[in-house]
UniProtKB/TrEMBL annotation:
Top-rank taxon, per record: Bacteria
Family: Belongs to the ATP:guanido phosphotransferase family.
Entry keyword set: Allosteric enzyme, ATP-binding, Kinase, Nucleotide-binding, Transferase
Gene encoding the protein: mcsB
Matching Pfam families: ATP-gua_Ptrans
Identification of the protein by name: Protein-arginine kinase
Organism field: Mesobacillus maritimus
Entry-linked PROSITE patterns: PHOSPHAGEN_KINASE, PHOSPHAGEN_KINASE_C
Length: 356
């Protein structure tokens, strides 16, 4: 399979499309956690109770899906090969928990992969909407549309005082997790990020790496999300996060301007050295690739590099993950083989872009 065809089949819309403030915000995600009334929660579920959840969702989609998102096809986790599951996790379409630890896990995907509905994950139902750029309000609207459609036929576990009941107490209330993925090299290079992180935490938000809890912020990419879901409305949670993200966008742009004024030649040298590594390496590990891709993306955004699109970072950060590399290769690869494949894929992707 050619790389171009592979990318066209593998890349979700949030990776390849621009959105508001997409020079800094790669994506916006809304996730709603829901459970069925009078059905055992997944953490202590039996096979029968997990099957009851599957049946309830199957009955709902049998009556048709919202035309904006449909068709939504149910896929069972146990019917998918391990490598395919890994790719879905790398694309942020399903969680590692659903891929590896769920009982009777399943999921539904929209054609453009903006909407993902996970079934029998940590909660019975987890609705996810993933949009390019800073589009939290739009993603919330889409998630609520899916939620309303499901709730027409499914009775949720809901308490008048506490709101939606969830497996984890931190999700009780709205059941909402709102998050944005941000590229913040300016704040990292000017050594401001270590001061900003504690301030963000004090505002009730949490900062993680590209794959959420426990992951490293490779390539200067940070995921920022709310921690509190109880006592606030969905709109208030999203507005609070948008406010912090807007400040970070402003601070990142100021940091980039400062670098251009005080260290322009050094920054330009860093960008083109990283570009040279990506363009010519025959072996490259994931951490080095992420760092170089971040530098090149910064160079594109600041106008040093003219013949590459900024979506190349979004794409290659995903396409060079272990699952994707092995899918492109057609089978399992040792770590050293992945490093060789990663370098080759990056070279070919850059060549494909610059030859257009």
């Amino acid at each position: 399979m050619s790389l171009e065809r592979f990318i066209n089949q593998a890349v979700s819309s949030w990776m390849s499309e621009d959105g508001p403030d997409s020079d800094i915000v790669l994506s916006s995600r809304i996730r709603l956690a829901r459970n069925l009334r009078e059905v055992t929660f997944p953490s202590i579920a039996t096979k029968e109770s997990a099957e009851a959840v599957i049946k309830a969702v199957e009955e709902r989609i049998s009556n048709g899906c919202p035309t904006r998102f449909g068709p939504l096809e149910m896929l069972k986790v146990d019917d998918i090969q391990p490598l395919q599951k890994r790719v879905l996790v790398e694309k942020h379409l399903i969680s590692p928990h659903l891929a590896e630890h769920s009982l009777n896990g399943a999921f539904l995907l929209s054609d453009n992969e903006e909407v993902s509905i996970m079934i029998n994950e940590e909660d019975h139902i987890r609705i996810q909407c993933l949009f390019p750029g800073l589009q939290l309000t739009e993603a919330l609207k889409a998630a609520n549309e899916v939620d309303d459609w499901l709730e027409e036929k499914i009775n949720y576990a809901f308490d008048e005082q506490y709101g939606y009941l969830t497996s984890c107490p931190t999700n009780v209330g709205t059941g909402l997790r709102a998050s944005v993925m941000m590229h913040l090299p300016g704040l990292v290079l000017t050594r401001q990020m270590n001061k900003i992180l504690p301030a963000i935490n004090q505002l009730g938000l949490v900062v993680r790496g590209i794959y959420g809890e426990g992951s490293e912020a490779l390539g200067n990419i940070f995921q920022i999300s709310n921690q509190t879901t109880l006592g606030k409305s969905e709109e208030d949670i999203v507005d609070d996060l948008k406010g912090v993200v807007s400040q970070l966008i402003s601070q990142e742009r100021s940091a980039r301007d400062a670098l251009a004024k005080t260290s322009n030649i050094q920054l330009e040298d860093r960008v083109f050295r990283s570009f040279g590594v990506l363009e010519n390496s025959r072996i490259i590990e994931s951490k080095e690739a992420a760092s170089c891709l971040s530098d090149v993306r910064l160079g594109i955004d600041m106008g040093y590099i003219k013949d590459l699109s900024r979506s190349i970072l979004n794409e290659l950060m995903i396409l060079t993950q272990p699952g994707f590399l092995q899918q492109y290769a057609g089978g399992p690869l040792r770590p050293d083989e992945r490093d060789i494949r990663r370098a080759a894929l990056i070279r070919e992707r850059i060549r494909m872009e610059t030859n257009q």
